[in-house]
Amino acid sequence: MTRILFADKLDNCLERWRSAGISVIGPVKKSNSSGYSAVTKAAEFDFNLVLPERSIKELFFPQSEPLMRYEIKKQEINTSEFKAPTSERIIFGVRPCDAAGLAIDDPLFGWDYQDEYWFQRRRETVLVTIACTKADDFCMCTSLKLTPDSEKGSDILLRPLENNSGWQVEELTDRGREAFKIIADLLQESQEKAAPTAVVEEKFDLEAALAWLKEPENFESHFWKEISMRCIGCGSCTFLCPTCHCFDIQDEGDTYSGIRRKNWDSCSFALFTMHTSGHNPRSTQSARWRQRIMHKFNYFPGKFNLNSCSGCGRCSRQCPVDMGITETLQELSKLLR
Ligand code: SF4
Ligand code: SF4
Predict the structure, then answer these.
(1) pLDDT exceeds cutoff 80 at 337
(2) Which of 96, 176, 225, 335 is a plausible cystine mate for 286, CB 3.0–4.6 Å?
């Protein structure tokens, strides 16, 4: 017997969590895009999306975040820090690749400096993941050694039932168990079978690609130019990626007062490495694409023993010129052979 959450109990669950002071966020489709947004009624969820267009990242690492206010006086400088807003929340209906993306970034945000903006939100959030029963041509979690029902980063894993009437519940962490205690009497013991998980074929030989990237002479290979000629440097792939985490810190104000903010940045932008002298060490789009690939699959694993990619496929799915990580790694894995 397995514990089941039937879909017709979802509104009751939302009410229980709300009464306990916990807000709920989930996959929502709006007129021109989809992402993870606040939900008050079960009908607002869209569980049919293969993957929301916008990743879960922005709920932990907002596109723009105030860090401190400053005021410069004649003899003194006053500063006051902004804290991340506190709120207990459940993100219900997370895709496994998005939950894995957060787990991949945890060591980065706690490496040389503990980023409390990130970790406070991580501590206050319960991730309820739904295993994927369908995938599209861009999904590639299996190429990154994950699965459509990966537990990485999740607090609760839900497996959709064969008849689509609800989900089998697997509690993975204490945080998840606490959140589901609140709705324990709404769950039912049942023998309903789970639907099979999506079939996601491996799209490239990751080990071969990683081996090629590690060879120092390949840094200057003509491959980089050929593979990235069509990139227009729009930055969509980095902004939509659940694991891309580059940011810039800027003061918005004047000489006397203002706000210091942390804003998303992208290695695809020419200004990312532009020096004030005008010199740019990554002056071409191909150098910038090489950096993106090297960072994700060579430098990041070198430091954290993790690839900085969960295989969500957004970078290829939403690239305006039909490029992306998949194509590059497919070509790279052939090069070693
Ligand atoms: S690869 Fe595509 S999405 Fe990424 S910067 Fe280039 S054009 Fe934009
Ligand atoms: S690099 Fe592409 S496939 Fe990998 S996590 Fe980022 S958006 Fe998804």
Answers:
(1) no
(2) 225
Give the Å distances, CA to CA, from 300 to 42, 74, 107, 315: 39, 44, 10, 18
- Three-class SS state of 324: coil
Q: Are 197 and 233 in contact (CB under 8 A)?
A: no
**Residue with the two structure tokens 């879960």:** 56
Beta carbons of 20 and 30 less than 8 angstroms apart: no
Q: Which residues pair with 232 in a beta bridge?
A: none
Query: What is the C-alpha to C-alpha distance for residues 304 and 294, in angstroms, rounded to an integer?
Result: 14
CA of 314 to the centre of ligand 2 (A): 6
pLDDT, tens digit (0-9, with 9 covering 90-100), for 133-168: 999 999 999 999 999 999 999 999 999 999 999 999
Question: What's the pTM value of the predicted model, to 2 decimals?
Answer: 0.94
Of 290, 317, 323, the one to substitute when testing ligand 1's pocket (max ligand atoms within 8 A of C-beta) is 323
Ligand 1 atom closest to the Cα of residue 234 is 8
Q: Which two tokens stand for residue 305?
A: 């023993």
pLDDT (tens digit per residue) in 181-235 = 999 999 999 999 999 999 999 999 999 999 999 999 999 999 999 999 999 999 9
